[in-house]
Amino acid sequence: MEKTELYSKKLTHGSRTYFFDINRSEKNEIYFKISESNKHAGFEHQRIMVFEEVMPEFAEAFWDCMTTFQKLKKGDIKAEKVDYYSKIRETFANAYVPWTQDDDDKLIFMHSEGFKVNELSKIFQRNEGAIESRIKHLEIR
């Protein structure tokens, strides 16, 4: 099986052109590729490829970065706050990331199965206070 392009989107801005592609590899793996071409004294070309198994984490990190970018741009948060979040995320990767419905469902189930707060903290990559707060918010008994 040869490489197959499944979807492509092009964005041109000034001397830069960005390509967003979804491809299927020769091994039948689907991956996402972002490429940039820059017409500057010739062409410079850079590329990043994200494979299927890391896509959820990549998308979450990308979304988190875009959300933070917008908040910084609007002045909703200050750069010092971003540094604070970054330091906490070195220990708890999901600190200050909004909870999803899937997270809530998993928390409810695992708490009802007897998982302790310290265990849930490791599983959800959030500090124990965040776990306790979410349990209280969801009114889990």
The stretches of 5 or more residues where confidence is low (pLDDT under 50) are none
**Which fold name corresponds to the CATH topology of the domain at 4-53?**
Nuclear Transport Factor 2, Chain: A
Reading off the top of the CATH hierarchy, the class of the domain at 4-53 is best stated as Alpha Beta
Order of helices and strands: EEEEHHHHH
Q: Which percent bin holds the helix content? A: 40-55%
- Secondary-structure-based class equals alpha+beta
Beta strand count: 4
Compute the average pLDDT.
85
Share in β-strands? 25-35%
Tell me the radius of gyration: 20 Å
CATH architecture title of the domain at 4-53: Roll
Read across the widest sheet, the strand sequence of neighbours is 1-2-3-4
The general outline is extended
